[in-house]
Amino acid sequence: MYSKLFVLSLLSVGCAVSAADIVVDPASEFAAAAALPLSPMEPELQRALEAHAAAVYKRLPPMDKLYLEGGTGFTRETAWVVTYNEPHQAPSAVVRLLYGIYGNEALFTVVELDQERIRVEGKTYLHTVNSILYKGKKYRVEQWVDISIYGLPVD
User: Fold this and answer.
1) What CA–CA distance (Å, rounded) separates 31 from 33?
2) Helix (H), strand (E) at residue 63
3) For residues 152 and 14, what is the distance between their CA atoms, to the nearest angstrom?
4) Regarding beta strands 109-120 and 68-70, do their DSSP bridges make them parallel or antiparallel, or are they unpaired?
5) How many CA atoms lie within 13 A of 50 on its CB side?
6) How far is Cα 98 from Cα 51, in angstroms, rounded to an integer?
7) Nearest to residue 98, comparing CAs of 123, 122, 129?
8) How far apart are CA 93 and CA 109, in angstroms?
9) For burial by CB atoms within 10 Å, which of 13, 18, 56, 98 has the most?
10) How far is CA 24 from CA 15, 32, 112, 116, in A?
């Protein structure tokens, strides 16, 4: 299984990662979790995710905040927006943000990940769908980042 750091680093070069690319070793501790059915999003979890994402953004280095605004990114309407296209710093800021949100295994354990670039209403988004464990249940969590400024083609 890829580490989250490796997967999120793929984002910085514009690679798409699909569920087929993320293999859960059947012998791993995550295999049973990955097989759990999805639970409907609970308001408590939604509030916890939003508060966590806002706190992560607040703690980002000031330079990263030059490239990102918006949030909390759990819907397309609240997407993070890349506001300045500097070829190395902007993608790195996105990686640091997403890793900050999902890099705490004790808080939200990611057991599955699917990530792609998609085009909606003339904008290009980095759309990540994570299956996370929270209090023994599995939930589907989306993360949206408007990367239109990059000018990347959609796969």
Assistant:
1) 5
2) helix 62-65
3) 8
4) unpaired
5) 12
6) 14
7) 129
8) 22
9) 98
10) 20, 10, 8, 19
Residue count (the chain): 155
Residue among 58, 46, 142 at smallest CA distance from 96 = 58
Q: Which residue matches tokens 């599995």?
A: 138
Q: Give the integer Cα–Cα distance in Å for 5 and 7.
A: 6
Identify the residue whose tokens are 């490239």.
Answer: 67
C-alpha dist (Å) from residue 125 to 61, 94, 104, 128: 23, 12, 24, 9
For the entire predicted model, the pTM comes to 0.77
Q: Which of 106, 110, 116, 151 is nearest to 132 (CA)?
A: 110
Q: Please write the tens of the pLDDT for every residue from 88-117.
A: 788 889 999 999 998 888 888 888 889 999
